[in-house]
Amino acid sequence: MTQRVPSAYRATFLVLLTTTLAGQCWAVWKSCSANNGQVLDLSVDTPCNKDRYILQKGTNVTLNVQFWSSVDSDQVKVRAHGFVMGMPVPLKMPNEDGCKDSGIECPVKNGEKYAYVQRFEVKPSYPKMSANLRWSLGDSNGGTVACVVLPVEIVE
């Protein structure tokens, strides 16, 4: 005998499912060449549309990169580039020393997992545009322990 689910339960389930999925970001980030580590996860505290993280001018955004290092390193250098029409444009970071105020305690050790957290301003002077943002963490050996590419859209 088949039991029918009351319509009130179905409606409640549908509302919960829709609310849960509405808060999910489906934009896809990609790991880029990190010869001395690997990105495990990434989160950005900003809304997104189907394929880009939305960066609203005049707001602050927090980026959280979970990674592991395959080398020992006394320092971590933060580098960021925006790719506009395929050309890399260096971005000035508020804190280029990944060992200070970022959640990483240096020295970084081989085989350890780390969480890099950076809060940055989307300046009102930035142009409205879609671009790819490459964020990388360099080690003291000249290599890279973490690298991600984020598709972003800067909006008013």
UniProtKB/TrEMBL annotation:
Family classification: Belongs to the NPC2 family.
Range of residues in the leader sequence: 1-27
Main location: secreted
Record carries keyword Secreted: yes
Keywords, ordered alphabetically: Disulfide bond, Secreted, Signal
Record's GO cellular component terms: extracellular region
Record-level Gene Ontology MF annotations: sterol binding
Name of the protein in question: Putative ecdysteroid regulated 16 kDa protein
Domain (MD-2-related lipid-recognition): residue spans on this chain: 29-152
UniProt subcellular location: Secreted
Origin species: Rhipicephalus microplus
Database matches in Gene3D superfamilies: 2.60.40.770
GO BP field: intracellular cholesterol transport
PANTHER family hit by this protein: NIEMANN PICK TYPE C2 PROTEIN NPC2-RELATED (PTHR11306), NPC INTRACELLULAR CHOLESTEROL TRANSPORTER 2 (PTHR11306:SF68)
